[in-house]
């Protein structure tokens, strides 16, 4: 589990490999507005529209490959093992397990004006 505190920081508990341990990203988890989860990972939208992820890398806890695209994030949706972020320009960025929607390459050109 993960909870946002009044000061915008985050507290987590549960299985460390499934997001219960934020040691690696604790310093980045400031001014958190929203937290979304897959079965084994978390994604937090910060006040500046950037995203911090943690938990099982195969379930979306690792977003290094798309981190430079995760700017001006408005919303995040999740499946069991992948995330999709809707940006302010109404485009979509995905990451996580390909089998669960973590790779939208095939339909990327169609993912415009997404609400």
Quick structural gist:
The chain is mainly beta and 115 residues long.
Protein architecture, described:
The N and C termini lie far apart (27 Å). The relative contact order is 0.15. Strand 1 and strand 2 (10-12) form a beta hairpin. The mean pLDDT is 97. This protein is an all-beta fold and 115 residues long. It has strands at 2-4, 10-12, 32-37, 41-46, 51-55, 73-78, 82-87, 92-96. The strands form 3 sheets. It has a 3-stranded antiparallel beta sheet, with no helix packed on it. A 3-stranded antiparallel beta sheet has the order 6-7-8, with no helix packed on it. The protein is globular and about 40 Å long.
Task: Give the helices and strands, then pairings.
Blueprint: E1 2-4, E2 10-12, E3 32-37, E4 41-46, E5 51-55, E6 73-78, E7 82-87, E8 92-96
